[in-house]
Each structure stands twice: as C-alpha cells, then as structure tokens.
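ok here's Glyoxal reductase, seq below lol
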Amino acid sequence: MNSIFDRTTLHNGVHMPWLGLGVYQAKEGKEVENAVKWAIEIGYRSIDTAALYENEVGVGKAIKESGIAREELFITTKVWNNRQGYESTLAAFEESRQKLDLEYIDLYLIHWPVKGKYKETWKALEKLYRDGIVKAIGVSNFQIHHLEDLMADSEIVPMVNQVEYHPKLTQKELLHFCQTHHIQLEAWRPLMKGQIFGEPTIVEIAKKYNKKPSQIVLRWDLQHGVVTIPKSVHRDRIQENGDIFDFELTKEDMEAIDELNQNHRLGADPDNFDF
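and the structure came out like this:
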C-alpha cells in the first residue's frame, strides 16, 4: 500500500483498488461529474455509486471524458432494496449499466440484506457474473449471520462486503469473519461525516505524522486490510484523502485508534431497517 494505484486481489483474482471515491449524495450533473473527473486526475481508479444515489449517468459521463482506459478503472454500483428478487435484479442491473454507459461493471453489490429477498437477488448476481458482464459480485451491510445464511445456499462466496466502518465502529468480529472467508471488507462513511476529525486521539496522532485527521483514519483502514471509499465533491478534499500512501502508522497508534470503538453507527442497523 505504497501508491494510490495499489490494489488488493479479490478471491476470484480480480484486482480492486484500496482507495476509491464514494459519490453518495453527490448531485447528478456537474457536481458528481467534476468529483469523478478530479478523482481520476489525482490518481483514483475506483468509483463507487449505486442506483439509489441517482447519479449513475453523471458518473458514466465523467468516466468517458476522463481519457483513462476503461480497463484501468474499477466501477461499483448496487441494486436497491425495492428491486431485489431474481428477475427484478437482472432488470435493475441493466438499467444501471445503461445509465453508466458501460459494457461491464467491475463490482455489483446487494445494497442491504432485505429479508426474504437477498438469496434470490444473489442468484441473479451469480448469473451476471457467469455471463461476464460483472467482474466481481458482493454485498453491502451484511452481518455475519447474513453472510452465513447466504453462503449456505450459494455457489459463489461474495467477493466484497461493504459496511459502515470507522474508529467508532470497528466491527472486529465481522472483519475477522470476512478475512477468514476471503471476503474483502470495504468501508463506507469511513470519516463519520467529519465527526471523527476532532477526536483527541486522532488529532494527536495526526500531529505526529504531520497529516490531517482524515488521512490518519483512512490509513488506519488500509492497514487493517480494509478498502476505503471516502466521499467528497471538493477537489482539495479528494486530493487530501488520496495522500495516504507516504507514511505508515505504528502498531501502537493502530491500537490506540482501535480503542476508540463504541459500536456506534451513523447509518441504519442492518438487523433493523425499514427501507
């Protein structure tokens, strides 16, 4: 993890960048287009969107205008909850693919574990993967019991599990489970919407390395073997978030950040959501 171009290898051999740009709540049009273009110019090669975000068209437009070869980029999108089920997921995927204007998607995820639906949804993802129009498939917001339930009836183990992950929600058991089963954990909302920036422990460690609190947290993600996708629509922040490959946290600093855990979620509980 010495370069913004470094990648982890998923269990099917696909190479996924350690750092990506999240575009949740980035407005369709110039806002998301500029964010994606800036990120790619800076060196990001992974962009994470979703049907729910309603900005897939802008993401696709920015990709086309970036001038970077398609095979160098890693594009993720997700099926939303109201489209889960076998046939509806296949249709939802095609809609996303058309909006992104891409021949294939690098990673397609089940956005949330909708009870009674996610197994059929997964069968659709397995078909998309076998058909070669998705390079990797995975899930988002799945707890250990969701993964165990899914894997009991599936032919393919998820390659990625994207979850809320930050110093106040370290999810050590889930991380260990995913690592044991060769499922790559990926962090959404890694910076807690900026709430972590004033944490005294993070601030002190940032001073030690002459880095920003955000850079300390993102580096902590990487050193735990967690892919991270901070969201920003500001060029300076996107640049700052990418500047995390020229230092390494000590074991003591990693442990100090681990100790900040409070099992505190900003987003919904995967075991209790109603959307």
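fwiw The mean pLDDT is 98. kinda neat tbh
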